[in-house]
Design brief:
GO terms for molecular function: DNA-binding transcription factor activity; sequence-specific DNA binding. This protein is an alpha+beta fold. It has 11 helices and 12 strands. The chain has 2 domains: 163 residues, Jelly Rolls, CATH 2.60.120.280; 121 residues, Arc Repressor Mutant, subunit A (Orthogonal Bundle). Helices cover 41% and strands 19% of the residues. The strands form 3 sheets. A 6-stranded antiparallel β-sheet has the order 1-2-9-4-7-11. A 4-stranded antiparallel β-sheet has the order 3-8-5-6. A two-stranded antiparallel sheet has the order 10-12. The longest helix is centred in the middle third of the chain and has 19 residues.
């Protein structure tokens, strides 16, 4: 990406719980280097925070520093312990919370599908295909050390780290990750996860690529995408999809891993995130995207993305 390197310094979010046996400070810093398109990073410590069920548009790859992260992913419960690598793939619904009262801390890379696609090709995957992974937690000490070191140095050195060094080191780590842990017999399409068999989708909670899900769910999804700022009623959505309200709710949740109202909230959050690049006040963004007010936007935004919109806005605007 052209232009001078810009890395945001995000505001620290904290709250303290007096009776906690461990320090209860929650901090989150989200940033990116405008020289590398498709890459964002997060360093966070969460104690009481709980991520709502959601799905990313790209890959998430990181390392647990201390504590333990518990999350529901691929149809089963995972616990990522210190020193393990945790990951999610595009479109796969998951949540996240501390495995116990101590919470967890981690460093995360968020990678666009195009970013991972280039690394996958270098790692010997079929051209134009994204890798799939059968687990959300990996036991790979070498990969964990490499990701932690690079992430830490990219934060500490900011724009003084040559972009070439960042690219070379990150590409080598991604190639190792894909070569060592990706499924060799199945891959996803370059634009997102391919639709799994119906039974697989029900078991894992995978969100199939738009157009590949059952027709009724596709119609409902398209309607919610087009009317995300509106107070959509279930009977209207069901009529548009051609199913009864009860049946639609069941098949929607079974196919996408989340109920219609949760999908609607996620679309609103993604819409709000896109508007952060403008000068529109957060209160106006909230109303534009269908939230009741700015505090409502902030609560839902943090539940899905882990940081409040005001903090993330710095990163978006500087890029």
């Amino acid at each position: 990406m052209a232009g001078a390197p810009q890395i945001s310094v995000m505001k620290t979010i904290s709250n303290t719980r007096k009776a906690a046996p461990q320090p209860a400070t929650e901090t989150a810093r989200y940033w990116a280097d405008s020289r590398i398109a498709g890459l964002e990073m997060l360093k966070a410590q969460y104690v009481r925070h709980t991520f709502a069920r959601h799905a990313h548009e790209g890959f998430a790859l990181g390392v647990i520093l201390h504590g333990a992260l518990a999350f529901r992913y691929l149809g089963r419960n995972h616990v990522a312990q210190p020193g393990t690598v945790n990951l999610t793939v595009p479109g796969e619904v998951h949540d996240g919370h501390g495995a116990d009262s101590a919470g967890w801390a981690y460093r995360m890379f968020y990678l666009s599908p195009q970013f991972v696609l280039a690394a996958a090709t270098e790692a010997g995957m079929p051209a134009g295909r994204l890798p799939e992974f059968s687990s959300g937690v990996l036991q790979d000490p070498a990969l964990a050390r490499g990701l932690t070191l690079l992430h830490t140095q990219m934060e500490q050195q900011d724009a003084t780290m040559p972009v070439l060094e960042q690219q070379v080191r990150l590409n080598a780590l991604l190639a190792h990750w894909i070569h060592a842990h990706a499924n060799r017999n199945t891959c996803t399409g370059a634009t997102g996860p391919q639709s799994p068999a119906a039974g697989s989708a029900r078991q894992t909670g995978s969100m199939p690529r738009a157009g590949c899900e059952p027709r009724a769910v596709r119609l409902a999804r398209e309607y919610l995408d087009a009317h995300s700022a509106e107070d959509v009623r279930l009977e209207v959505l069901a009529l548009h999809a051609g199913l009864s309200p009860y049946h639609l709710s069941r098949v929607f949740c079974r196919t996408l891993g989340m109920p219609p109202h949760a999908y609607l909230t996620q679309r609103r959050v993604f819409h709000a995130r896109a508007l952060l690049a403008t000068d529109t006040p957060l209160a106006d963004i909230a109303l534009t995207c269908g939230f009741a007010d700015q505090s409502h936007l902030t609560r839902q935004f943090k539940r899905v993305l882990g940081v409040p919109p005001g903090a993330l806005r710095k990163n978006v605007q500087e890029q």
